[in-house]
Write a structure and sequence with these properties.
The strands form two sheets. A three-stranded mixed β-sheet has the order 3-4-5, with helices on one face. The protein folds into three domains: about 45 residues, no CATH class; about 35 residues, no CATH class; about 80 residues, no CATH class. By secondary structure, it is an alpha+beta fold. The protein is elongated.
Length: about 220
């Protein structure tokens, strides 16, 4: 995801001919125009680049534009089961003593950084010719170096293993929209390693006699 550098500067003073270098009033008028361009032209496009065009720095408005372009809603409503009775005032009080509590906390709305992450994954999903090395590079680019890796099960399944915590909201969105890049017809899932120490060869054998076995 490389974006070329743009130069938004406008130097109106270059339009002055050398004959008018001593024309103070003319230079003042041009300088005032230059000052206006610095705010209305250069600063505007520089801010637009950071706030909208660049997906890595876009603000909430820019991310909403990218969400439309990439076809990824940024608010997701958790599904509510419809094939069972819930506790409440049904006909003849049928649900009392027969149903369980149920409800929805409303749509899940990601924070700004989570939106950037989800949209960048969506972008890579659309433009990447998938391979395991590419997937590892995507993980490093989006989540940070050393944040995870991809395991090829050699059975038409792959697994993303994350070494960093992922919020429940973000995990739900990753699952709901199948955002992790994968080849066609290949199933993909992910696991998040726990924060507790696992049995293994840690520094000074720290994990021996202190950790549990863990299988990803």
């Amino acid at each position: 995801m490389k974006i070329q550098a743009f130069d938004y500067s406008v130097n109106l003073l270059r339009a002055l001919l050398w004959q008018y270098n001593e024309a103070a009033r003319l230079e003042s008028l041009v300088q005032q125009k230059q000052d206006w361009y610095n705010v209305a032209q250069s600063d505007f496009w520089s801010n637009w680049y950071d706030d909208v065009f660049n997906l890595q720095t876009a603000n909430d408005f820019g991310l909403s534009v990218w969400a439309i372009i990439l076809g990824l809603p940024l608010a997701v409503s958790p599904p509510v089961p419809v094939d069972q009775d819930f506790f409440g005032f049904a006909a003849d009080d049928v649900n009392f003593s027969n149903g369980g509590f149920a409800g929805s906390s409303g749509p899940i709305v990601l924070n700004t950084e989570q939106k950037r992450l989800a949209l960048r994954l969506r972008y890579y999903q659309l433009v990447t010719r998938f391979s395991v090395p590419q997937a590892n590079a995507i993980i490093a680019a989006v989540f940070g170096p050393g944040s995870g890796y991809v395991v090829d099960g050699l059975n038409m399944r792959i697994r993303y293993v994350f070494n960093i915590p992922l919020s429940p909201d973000l995990q739900f969105v990753l699952t709901q929209y199948d955002l992790l890049p994968r080849p066609a017809t290949v199933m993909a899932d992910f696991v998040v390693l726990g924060e507790t120490d696992g049995f293994g060869f840690g520094a000074y054998h720290f994990n021996f006699n202190q950790g549990n076995f863990y299988h990803a």
